[in-house]
Amino acid sequence: MYTLDDYDYHLPETLIAQTPATDRDGSRLLHLNRDHGTVSHRHFHDIVALLHPSDVMVVNNTRVIPGRLYGRKATGGKAELLILDYGETDGRGRDDCKRVYRCLIKASKQAGAGTRILFDEGLVAEVRDFSNGIFTVAFFAPEPFDDILQRIGRMPLPPYIKRSEAQPDEADRMRYQTVYACEQGAIAAPTAGLHFTDEVLSYIRAKGVTVAVVTLHVGYGTFVPVRVDDIRDHRMHEEWFSIPKETARIVSHAKSEGRRVVAVGTTSVRTLEYASGPDGVIQPGRGRCDLFIYPGYGFKTVDAMITNFHLPRSTLLMLVSAFAGRDTMLQAYAEAVREKYHFFSYGDAMFID
């Protein structure tokens, strides 16, 4: 179970969701029961019935920034830029019209130090440094940087969702964002949360479920493929997280009473487990999470999870395989393919308990 090939599966390209469901909670939901290894087929709004009144449900309230920018180098060639660390260095205490961020840059010729990239509305970027595939870039704006970014930036959709540069992204700006997103900084959505509506959350709370929040700014590492044959040799990219004191108190109290902690998404799972002690009690605070969960890992805090379907050979598939068992998980994925579930960010969901 430590070989990369052990986490491969066949997925017809037609099942990769390119657009979201008409209604957020109208997505399909595959319920996987770990004790019996059984699956049942539902719709996402049925999640209310699957939760217990005593549960604590933890969501990731990160907000995706429109951090993909299209411009041209001063020499005329096209350049595409993606801001990586907005949520960690958000410009507080800096000039609103000048920011410095770590970025990825795609251009016909690698951008060297001093390269200037010109964007709409007078925004200019200048490359300061390059190291380990990442550029340090200074931005100069004629007005507050955040205002311009909101107007000309694009949502950084995953590479398997196909959009042209000229295609409007108003719909993606709304749907590639959870309804509870508020802490700006992610370059990808915590996609399990995309299925929730305000109404579903109201029903969940009315049932007695406590909803708590963490923040983990989903980073570039979520798209980085595993390139080692033995998955134990893979190293995760760090992602910035924060756990409020109230969330730590709620979760720790639930664990002491033997109540379930339900994590919404792999990002919430990793945040909780990273901050967890051997008894499942978690500590408040903030920092950088680099926890890699794969089969053999002993979960300390999370008792159930809501998640989307994940890419073959990905660290996310390894995480859910650690939670449910690799064979059980791959059988569930095979069932989802047979039943024509839609996969990945805009796809359908799973509930694993």
Summarize the structure.
This protein is of the alpha/beta class.
Q: What order do the helices and strands come in, and which of them pair?
A:
Elements: E1 28-33, E2 38-43, H1 47-50, E3 56-60, E4 62-64, E5 68-73, E6 78-83, E7 98-107, E8 116-118, E9 124-131, E10 134-140, H2 145-152, H3 170-175, E11 183-186, H4 198-207, E12 210-216, E13 239-243, H5 245-256, E14 261-264, H6 266-274, E15 285-289, E16 304-308, H7 315-324, H8 326-338, E17 349-352
Parallel strand pairs: 1-17, 3-12, 3-14, 4-11, 14-16
Antiparallel strand pairs: 1-2, 5-6, 5-8, 6-7, 7-10, 8-9, 9-10, 12-13, 13-15, 16-17
Mean pLDDT figure:
94
The largest sheet is: 9 strands, mixed
The percent of residues in helical segments reads: 10-25%
Number of helices: 8
Helix-strand string: EEHEEEEEEEEHHEHEEHEHEEHHE
Tally of strands:
17
Mind telling me the C-alpha Rg?
21 Å
Strand content: 25-35%
Task: Name the overall outline.
Answer: globular
What structural class results from the helix and strand content? alpha/beta
Span of the ends, CA to CA: 22 Å
**Unreliable residue runs:** none
Q: Could you give the order of strands across the largest sheet? A: 2-1-17-16-14-3-12-13-15
Name some characteristics of this structure.
alpha/beta; nine-stranded mixed beta sheet; 27% strand; single chain; six-stranded antiparallel beta barrel; 353 residues
